[in-house]
Amino acid sequence: xxxxxxxxxxxxxxxxxxxxxxxxxxxxxxxxxxxxxxxxxxxxxxxxxxxxxxxxxxxxxxxxxxxxxxxxxxxxxxxxxxxxxxxxxxxxxxxxxxxxxxxxxxxxxxxxxxxxxxxxxxxxxxxxxxxxxxxxxxxxxxxxxxxxxxxxxxxxxxxxxxxxxxxxxxxxxxxxxxxxxxxxxxxxxxxxxxxxxxxxxxxxxxxxxxxxxxxxxxxxxxxxxxxxxxxxxxxxxxxxxxxxxxxxxxxxxxxxxxx
Length: 259
Fold this sequence. Notes:
Layout: H1 5-23, E1 30-32, E2 38-40, H2 41-57, E3 62-65, E4 68-71, E5 77-85, H3 87-91, E6 98-105, E7 108-116, E8 121-126, E9 131-133, E10 136-137, E11 151-153, H4 159-175, E12 179-180, H5 185-193, E13 199-203, H6 207-219, E14 223-225, E15 238-242, H7 244-258
Parallel strand pairs: 3-5, 11-12, 11-13
Antiparallel strand pairs: 1-2, 3-4, 5-6, 6-7, 7-8, 8-9, 9-10, 13-15, 14-15
Helix pairs in contact: 1-2, 4-7, 5-6
């Protein structure tokens, strides 16, 4: 059954996206969590659906989700899910939101799937087999430099991450007027992989937001690291993802700003 994980993960992402569309641009009860982040009825319903389907198909696998408690087992397989990445966008009828699913084997990402329901775009990757948008291969844009690239960013919810972000933003904005905060880290990583944008960075990462996207960027021949230039891992606290042509310049700027 494990050999079917890529196919099943893609199907689950699409089905979860279809569920989200039923709530999209309709009145949702808004709940503010202790860290002031937002959760909606759609988040919770999508989480229940996705967890139920994973547990039904792979009852022995572990699951980590943004919206519910962890399910820990002795299995080498672990599902990292965000049933609705970009909740604030979703809550204001902004179509830039998605479903993120990553499957790890012994702590290493093997399958990454990100689905944008409104655009009906499925970004996915299998370790060692490349990255794809729907069924077409994608690769990062290595032709641009940092001044000519659209760079996007997110930040963690803690105060320290926001302070770091403000420092980086101030310096980067003076160098590049094309930086944007769009509000859905998983999709922003997918856009780097698909050569739509030239880079992404984030202080204060959460694994459910970015693990699928980092695999997709890597399989699209991009470079992913932390702010120290070390290879990104599940324990990393911050993230830079970009083509090789942009990554080094972005890394140097961030290090001069924050270290």
